[in-house]
Structure formats: C-alpha cells, structure tokens
Amino acid sequence: MVSVVDAVGLLVILGVNSLAAALLTRLFRVRLNTQWGAVLYSVLLTPLVLLVLVLVLGGAGLGPDLGGAAAVIGITILLPLAMGMAFDYFWQPAPEEVELPDRRGT
Asked: What pLDDT, in 10s, does the model give residues 14-28?
C-alpha cells in the first residue's frame, strides 16, 4: 500500500519533470530556427534531463516503489514529457507570435 508521503513525493516528481519538459521544449522552440529541430531536441534530449531529475529526486527518498524500470520510465519520464510538450505546443503562443520590446541602448 502506498502511503500519503509516497503519493505526494510522486506528485512532486511528476510536477518537477513536467515543468522541466515544458521549459526545455520552449527553449528549443525559441532557440532553434527549424520546426523539426525543436521537436527532435525535445524528444531526444529532454528525457535525459528528466532521467537525471528522477535519479536525484528518487535518491532523495521521494516517491513510492513503482515495481520496475518500465513503470518508472512510463510514469516519471514519458508522462511528464508528453504533458510538458503538450503544454508548450497547445497552450502557449508560438515563439514567432510573441512581440518583444525593442532593445534600446545596445
């Protein structure tokens, strides 16, 4: 049976990983000039960052025992990756639609 502390720890891991995935996806969309480049970087590099975060947060004692490597990858890496990318692509404006102020003095 999962305790309340384990459930809260898992929610913290999911929240941190989703935030990291959304921020990295936005970073790749803003910095890269091609549409597919941002998608490839998001799909290939973001899971590595999420894996490091899971190892750090899980090593700190957060989260329950999920039973196996496939469950850990699915729940703590793939799910937040999908949620973070969906948040950036569907709910945030495209980088080219955002108006930035003029840079004066440079």
From this structure: 999 999 999 999 999
